[in-house]
Amino acid sequence: MYDYDLLVIGSGPGGQKAAIAGAKLGRRTAVVEKRHMLGGVSINTGTIPSKTLREAILYLTGINQREMYGASYRLKNTITVGDLSARTQHVIGREIDVIRSQLSRNRVETLVGVARFVDDHTIGVSEPDGGVRTVTAEHIVIAVGTRPARPESVAFDGRNIVDSDQILALEELPSSMVVVGAGVIGIEYASMFAALGTKVTVVERRERMLDFCDVEIVEALKYQLRDLAVTFRFRESVSRVERHDGGTLTVLASGKRIPADTVMYSAGRQGLTDDLDLANAGLTADARGRIEVNDDYQTTVPHIYAVGDVIGFPALAATSMEQGRRAAYHAFGEPVRGSLGALQPIGIYTIPEVSYVGRTEDELTEANVPFEVGISRYRELARGAILGDSYGMLKLLVHAENGTLLGVHVFGTGATELIHIGQTVMGCGATVDYLVDAVFNYPTLAESYKVAALDAVNKMRAVKRFLG
Ligand SMILES: Cc1cc2nc3c(=O)[nH]c(=O)nc-3n(C[C@H](O)[C@H](O)[C@H](O)COP(=O)(O)OP(=O)(O)OC[C@H]3O[C@@H](n4cnc5c(N)ncnc54)[C@H](O)[C@@H]3O)c2cc1C
Ligand SMILES: NC(=O)c1ccc[n+]([C@@H]2O[C@H](COP(=O)([O-])OP(=O)(O)OC[C@H]3O[C@@H](n4cnc5c(N)ncnc54)[C@H](O)[C@@H]3O)[C@@H](O)[C@H]2O)c1
What we know:
alpha/beta, FAD/NAD-bd_sf, 5-stranded parallel sheet, 13 helices, FAD/NAD(P)-binding domain, 33% helix, 3 domains
């Protein structure tokens, strides 16, 4: 009766995984995607280019080798935009190829164009040649993602005043830069440009940055960034950004004016729902373009699902993929286990990187959960010394009464990989004793789990001594 069992709008992480899941369940599946955007924001302008850029910067600046070889160590003295973009373009190209191949070998049809609702089962696809193709589907997944917010008060020109998509196309590396917004995007790019030697000023209207993370780890990150000559302006709001001959001027509500070669505006993102004609399907979006869904990712029209950034927090590639898979399974009656949430890791690819899973000290204190802290510092690990990472740390939050792990927070080399050991231990419900008794490869950073676990149990034993 319908052309497809499942039609997915958007081929970012959420859309891709929804489509592949539908196809694996034997359903006729298609994805609609705009020209030149296969893989979504994640592959083309977001996750993959920014993480590849970071890797290129780490390699070419030699920043991670400086504890060993001295502050002046560089692999390449003059790093150009070309040096950086060559690696980025190479990885983007490969990733697009992987996605194209995965979709085609799973017989997911790709329809190129802009999708909009004609009714709740019908989509019009405006194709690049100007034609409109109309297709119908039993189930529809909206995975259209977001775009950077671009307020009128900022004179974006794509050259000196840019958003986080345009930053990838800079013609030369700026010697000074203002980053507006200390969200994850702002801080990741601030740290990358600071590592390249750009003098970075971060303006953030809140009192602190990354307020969902562990306070001690954010302090450690700020210390490292200040050491790279980053200036922070907290509790300051940007009123406007002006373009002048030879540079830019960022005007703050407090009256301060900050001159810089380049401004990157990274103060939030907007759901890409404007062009979808949602009303034709009986749907609405909020002021930030987000669509509301229930725990199964169904919108208010039950056969239409929404996943990924368009449904809001946490807006990560990692979660979007899993939401996509779950939405498709739900549509076709395939069971899924549990719900996404408590054990969702967060990885922030700053230089140095941050990662955590579970709860923070502040959250536990607020909830009156008694906990003990176990800390391991990389400078006391043989692997930390070998790598030349003296600032890294791993922190375990352990329930003071039953020994279960409540949170793991990591700062430094390998943080975003290491976190998964803690995530697995927490997911299996093991206690800190598992980490105390386990033998880890030596010398590794993973050993930090055992060191931190011993630290926590030593403190817990000290309390028990008093209690008899
Ligand atoms: C700079 C940056 C760095 C990031 N780093 C990380 C990271 O390190 N780790 C992490 O987990 N996440 C990261 N993210 C977030 C991650 O990229 C997003 O969470 C993820 O891309 C969201 O996936 P999605 O499926 O919602 O769709 P998106 O990736 O946003 O893709 C949506 C797609 O839908 C298409 N589309 C929109 N409207 C239509 C329409 N009407 N018709 C047809 N197609 C349409 C768009 O062209 C786009 O290709 C980063 C984001 C940015 C911007
Ligand atoms: N490693 C990762 O997982 C990763 C990396 C990058 C992005 N992302 C995702 O992308 C999404 C978008 O990130 P983002 O950083 O753009 O958005 P955000 O909304 O998280 O941060 C924007 C920041 O800008 C501040 N701000 C807003 N207006 C301001 C003004 N006029 N002056 C000064 N400060 C202002 C806000 O207070 C906020 O702290 C996030 O949800 C994030 O999870 C994830």
